[in-house]
Amino acid sequence: MAFTSAVITFPGSNCDRDMAVALEKVSGTAPHRVWHGDSELPEGLDFIAVPGGFSYGDYLRCGAIASRSPIMQAVIAAADKGVPVLGVCNGFQVLTESGLLPGALLRNAGLNFVCREVGLEVVNAQSLFTNAYEAGQVVRIPVAHHDGNYFADEETLNRLEGEGRVAFRYAEEVNGSARSIAGVLNDAGNVLGMMPHPERAIETTHGGTDGRGLFESAIRGLVGA
Amino acid sequence: MKVRVHVSLKPGVLDPQGRAIHHSLEGLGFSGVNDVRAGRLFELDVAESVTDEAIDDMCRKLLANMVIENYRIEKVAA
C-alpha cells in the first residue's frame, strides 16, 4: 500500500525539500507538496509534515502568521480527525501557535542560534512516531534554531510527563528548554512537534541515520510495511 | 480610532532578551536597574465601528500568545 503524505510549504520554509526527500527515501513515494495559500489538503493523506524554516520571516512570533494561514485550518481539521502530523523546528512552532500542541517556543536561553548535532533521548518509544526506537535510547540528530526554548506552565509540564507525551528530551544542554523537552505529542498521540531535524539524518552522507527511525515508525505503523 | 496594544511576557516566563538588555545597560554604566522585561507595542488604526470585543479578539487570536504573554489595550485620544 502506498504511503500518501504531504509537506506544507509557507513563504520562508527552507526544510520542505529535505522533508520531502526524507519521506520519499524512506517510504518510496514522493509526498504531495502543498502551498500555504491552499485551503484544502489532498485526499486520503496518511501523514502531514510541517517543515522547518522561517515562515513569514518569523514576523510577530515564530510560526504565528503561518499558523493562521488557510492551509493550517485544513491541517488542524485533519489532525482532529486523527491524521498524523509532524512539525519540525519552525513546524513545531507553527503547531504550538496553532494550538495543536501545548506550550510555546521561546528565544534560546543563551540567545545564540544553535546549529549542531545533539544527543536526544527517546523518552516515549511507543508513539506512532517513535516506535522504531528503544525507550531511553540516545540518538544523534541535528538542531538549527534560535527559538527552541520549550516553555509550558508547571501543570502542563507535569501532565505531559505523566501522560507520556514527552517524546524526546535533550541529552545535553541546548537551549534552556523546560525539563529539557525537545519534542512533545498531543493528547491523542497523532501530532508530534520537535525542534531537532530528523530529516537531516537519514543517509550516511548526512553524517548519521538516526533520524530514519522516526519516518520508519510512522510509515510502518500506517501502512504495515 | 487609534488603539495601542501592549504585549508583555507573563511573570515567570524567562526573558533572555530582557536579560541581555539589562546586562548591556549595566555595561553602559547605568546602575540601579533591577530587572528588564522586553515587550511589544502595536499601534492600530481602526474604524469607529470596531467594537471593544473585536479588539480583544484580535489580541487573543493573533497579537498575543496567551500561553506566554499578557496584553493591555489602550485607546488613544485623537
TrEMBL record, chain B:
Pfam families from the UniProt entry: PurS
Pathway: Purine metabolism; IMP biosynthesis via de novo pathway; 5-amino-1-(5-phospho-D-ribosyl)imidazole from N(2)-formyl-N(1)-(5-phospho-D-ribosyl)glycinamide: step 1/2
Entry-linked Gene3D superfamilies: Phosphoribosylformylglycinamidine synthase subunit PurS
Enzyme Commission no: 6.3.5.3
InterPro entries noted in UniProt: PurS (IPR003850), PurS-like_sf (IPR036604)
Cell location: Cytoplasm
One GO cellular component, as annotated: cytoplasm
Keyword annotations of the record: ATP-binding, Cytoplasm, Ligase, Nucleotide-binding, Purine biosynthesis
BP term (GO), one: 'de novo' IMP biosynthetic process
Main location: cytoplasm
Signal peptide residues on this chain, from the entry's feature table: none
One function term, GO molecular function aspect: ATP binding
Catalytic activity line of the entry: N(2)-formyl-N(1)-(5-phospho-beta-D-ribosyl)glycinamide + L-glutamine + ATP + H2O = 2-formamido-N(1)-(5-O-phospho-beta-D-ribosyl)acetamidine + L-glutamate + ADP + phosphate + H(+)
SUPFAM superfamilies, A to Z: PurS-like (SSF82697)
PANTHER family: PHOSPHORIBOSYLFORMYLGLYCINAMIDINE SYNTHASE SUBUNIT PURS (PTHR34696:SF1)
Its biological purpose: Part of the phosphoribosylformylglycinamidine synthase complex involved in the purines biosynthetic pathway. Catalyzes the ATP-dependent conversion of formylglycinamide ribonucleotide (FGAR) and glutamine to yield formylglycinamidine ribonucleotide (FGAM) and glutamate. The FGAM synthase complex is composed of three subunits. PurQ produces an ammonia molecule by converting glutamine to glutamate. PurL transfers the ammonia molecule to FGAR to form FGAM in an ATP-dependent manner.
Family: Belongs to the PurS family.
Subunit structure: Part of the FGAM synthase complex composed of 1 PurL, 1 PurQ and 2 PurS subunits.
NCBIfam families for the chain: phosphoribosylformylglycinamidine synthase subunit PurS, PRK05974.1
Name the record gives this protein: Phosphoribosylformylglycinamidine synthase subunit PurS
